Structures are given as structure tokens and as C-alpha cells.
Amino acid sequence: xxxxxxxxxxxxxxxxxxxxxxxxxxxxxxxxxxxxxxxxxxxxxxxxxxxxxxxxxxxxxxxxxxxxxxxxxxxxxxxxxxxxxxxxxxxxxxxxxxxxxxxxxxxxxxxxxxxxxxxxxxxxxxxxxxxxxxxxxxxxxxxxxxxxxxxxxxxxxxxxxxxxxxxxxxxxxxxxxxxxxxxxxxxxxxxxxxxxxxxxxxxxxxxxxxxxxxx
Length: 215
Known about the structure:
The protein is an alpha+beta fold. The protein has a domain at 2-130: Zincin-like, CATH 3.30.2010. It is 57% helix and 8% strand. Strands 1-2-4-3 form a four-stranded mixed beta sheet, sandwiched between helices. Helix 1 (8-20) packs across helix 3 (63-78) and helix 5 (98-130) packs across helix 9. It starts with a strand and ends in a 7-residue tail after the last helix. Residues 91-96 have low confidence and may be disordered.
């Protein structure tokens, strides 16, 4: 596992992290770190660090999609989602070591759960809007995730158990649909990609009070 310290990738995450946290004291800001790891992900751990996989970042076409990626991890800190597993030694928890960080990333979705992931999505979008980023461009991150899921043949990651519905969290969803998605969520720890995006489109509509152009 290698940390990338120079070049466009760390410059991008540092730039968007600074913009997203411009109203916070410098010593309270979270620090983004770009890692060369095989996992196509971004994650955070207790402490001050946000980790972004280089493989994922290089597919983000602009600062907006990268900003939403970083903002989602900031949101987990803001929302108090970071429950520290008992098996992590106290000194390592405080320093946020990269090896333990990778282990934490492997179980982070199960620790957070789908409800907290969705709450982090909403808060992340709020942070991006506050920083002046385009909501539509921020949501393009889900297209990046969907294309990757298609490449690795994980259709469930895109659609979940019901390929014809992107509204499993909608109040109008049937109880059978809700039951299927509940079981799926507990095994995956998060909503399907299209459902996460659909939930954010609805949230954006409620914030703007108009039909969302991101639909």
C-alpha cells in the first residue's frame, strides 16, 4: 500500500477538501490521503484522515465528483458515525495507521449501515452546495461507480434485488419491495447505486422546491 504525496491526485483531494471545509478552523479540518490500493473505494477512520483510492479518483472527471466523494467521508465525521471497533488498539485509533485503515474500510459499510450511508449522502450534498459546487456534476460520481460495477459484473451493486425499481426507500414502495431491499441492505451494508442517486435526486428536489434537472 503506497501513499501518493505529489501530483494531480493529492492536489485535487487537498483542493476540494479545503473548499469543503473553508469555514472550519484549520486544526479541525480532516486530511485527505490518496492511496494506491486495489479496492475501488474511499473511506475514513476515527481520527483526522480521509482515504481515497487512486483507482477511484482517476475516474472522477472533475472536482465536483471528487468533492462529493470527499464530502461523503467528511459527513461520517460530522454525523458521528465513526464507531471505533474494540479490536483496534488505542494508539492506532489515534494515529489512523494506513494498514488498520484498510482493515477498517473492509467493514465500514457494515458498521455504518444503509441508513447512515444515505444520511451521509445527504449531508455530503449539503456540503457541496454550500461550497458552491454543481449538484448535478457532484451526482455524476454515481455514474463512475455504476460503470465500475458493470465492468466487474456486479449488477446487484447497481440495481439491488429489483432491477426495475430505483425507489426502494420511497414511501410508496410496497412492503414486499421493502422486505427484499431490507435483506439486501443487511448483506451489503448500503443501498444500490441507482437507489442512492434516486434518493439524492428527491432530496435535491425538496431542497430546491422544484423538479430536479439531475433526474
